Amino acid sequence: MAAPAVEATVATALRSVILRARNAAEKVGRDPERVRVLPVSKTKPVSLIRQIYDAGHRCFGENYVQEIIDKAPQLPDDIEWHFVGHLQSNKAKTLLTGVPNLAMVHGVDGEKVANHLDRAVSTLGRHPLKVLVQVNTSGEVSKSGIEPSSVVDLARHVKQHCPNLVFSGLMTIGMPDYTSTPENFRTLSNCRADVCKALGMAEDQFELSMGMSGDFELAIEMGSTNVRVGSTIFGPREYPKKAT
After folding, report:
1. Enclosing H/E stretch for 48
2. Buried b / exposed e across 182-220, counting CB within 10 Å, b at 16+?
3. How confident is the model at residue 187 (pLDDT cuts 50, 70, 90)?
4. Secondary-structure percent of the chain, ordered helix, strand, coil, rounded to 5
């Protein structure tokens, strides 16, 4: 259980992030309502999410399948959950079964995981699931995501062969030290232009998920519609200590 002082700080921190996000959008003439702030509570207790919910926020992100399926049932079902981590294809049905109110999966990085999600949606009889294709814009071998040159083909596969999925846009994760910013944002924007041209989609209806605690304002200025903010709202991550 988190201390009340911590919970109050979390709600205040979210309000600050939302204000900064609005200001970033207005700075470049964008509609602030087109920017979704996703508090990502990785490793943090449900009580902190509840505090933000009670302050009126309804969109939340999680990185790990086990964590989101543990947390979601403990919270109100009008929350709009976004899965923003790497998804293994064999966990697709587990994710959808455990989180009926899952609104979007941000990390589709291949046909296999897209096909598994499509089948899981069909099997469960739930409404179509919005998905974003994850692009590796930094060139790091350790990063998930497809190469920019393959984006159009995967987006086309989702649109044409996955009737239970709604291809909604693109997502990227930059380098942890932010040295790939803003080039990674520019690359994702270029990918958006390529996909929209190839598939006849309108750019103003296209989602971009890019930007985290250290660079979300710049991401918004460069077109992001989803910013995934963790430590700026919830504080440093708390990972279990390894036994020595």
Report:
1. helix 46-54
2. bebbebbbebbeebbeeeebeeeebbbbbbbbbbbbbbb
3. very high
4. 45, 15, 35
Cα–Cα distance for residue pair 89/108, rounded to 1 Å: 9
* Per-residue pLDDT tens digits for 55-78: 999 999 999 999 999 999 999 999
How buried is residue 21: exposed, middle or buried, by Cβ count under 10 Å (0-12/13-18/19+)?
buried
Inform me whether the pLDDT recorded for 183 exceeds 70: yes
Position 94 scores a pLDDT of 98
First to last CA, the chain: 27
pLDDT at 219: 96
| 87 burial via Cβ count (<10 Å: 0-12, 13-18, 19+) | buried
d(CA 62, CA 40): 5
| Helix or strand (DSSP H, E) at 68 | helix 65-71
pLDDT digits (tens, 9 = 90+) for 48-57: 999 999 999 9
Burial of 28: CB neighbours in 10 Å, binned 0-12, 13-18, 19+: exposed
Rounded Cα distance between 116 and 184, Å, is 28
Nearest 5°: phi and psi at 146?
Answer: -95, 160
Q: For residues 76 and 203, give the distance between their C-alpha atoms in angstroms, rounded to a whole number.
A: 33
Paired tokens of 79: 């929350």
| Residue 33 burial class via C-beta count within 10 angstroms: exposed 0-12, middle 13-18, buried 19 and up | exposed
Residues 205/168, Cβ–Cβ less than 8 Å: no
